[in-house]
Amino acid sequence: MALRNTSERYEYIYGSNVRKLETDMAGKQTAKAVPAKKNLRRPEQRRTGNKAADSEAAAAIQKNAAKFLAFDWKYTLVALIAVIICSAAAMFYLHANAQLNVMEKQISDLKTEKTSLESKQSAIQAEIDKSINLDQIKDYAEKKLHMIYPKDSDVLLYQRDSDDYFRQYESVD
Predict the structure, then answer these.
(1) pTM, to two decimals
(2) Burial of 57 (0-12, 13-18, 19+ CB in 10 A)
(3) Mind listing the pLDDT tens digit for each residue in 31-76?
(4) CA quadruple 143, 145, 150, 154: dihedral positive or negative?
């Protein structure tokens, strides 16, 4: 917008298109009235000025509006299929998420059961270790089973001649 004289320039805030606010006698600020624009025609109408081109444009606009307002079954069918697919995917996701939550609960229950069983096992093992009396076992073996400790003369040592780790299918003498 080109300013015609310097008095118009002072009505605007410097460097912008914002009008300055006037202050009346009471100290209230009010905006100056904006003059109405006189030429409100569209730019293409100003350039051509041809009524035939205007009527063709209006016919094209009406044709496009009729196409826009026409009910399209193909579009509706595609939209319906897309909604069904999205709904099925959402239901599948929710079902999988519910199964995951159930399995996580089962895992946590099994972990707590495992820890309780391990603590019971360690308690039973400690009880077994306390109940074993080696002297009692020695007495039982000597008296009831007639077992004796070997003498040094009863022990034979085997001396091998080769460095093989073991020999198959041969008797050891």
Answers:
(1) 0.38
(2) middle
(3) 554 454 555 555 554 555 567 778 888 888 888 887 777 777 888 8
(4) positive
SS (H, E, C) the chain: CCCCCHHHHCCECCCCCCECEEECCCCCEEECCCCCCCCCCCHHHHHHCCHHHHHHHHHHHHHHHHHHHCCCHHHHHHHHHHHHHHHHHHHHHHHHHHHHHHHHHHHHHHHHHHHHHHHHHHHHHHHHHHHCCHHHHHHHHHHCCCCCCCCHHHCCCCCCCCCCCCCCCCCCC
Q: Give the separation between CA 112 and CA 105, rounded to whole angstroms.
A: 11
Is the C-alpha dihedral spanning 35, 38, 44, 46 positive or negative?
A: negative
Tokens 């995951």, residue? Answer: 100
Give the distance, in angstroms, between the CA of residue 145 and the centroid of all CA atoms in the same chain: 71
CA angle at 129 for the pair 126 and 135, rounded to the nearest 5°: 155
Cα 113 from Cα 121, distance rounded (Å) = 12
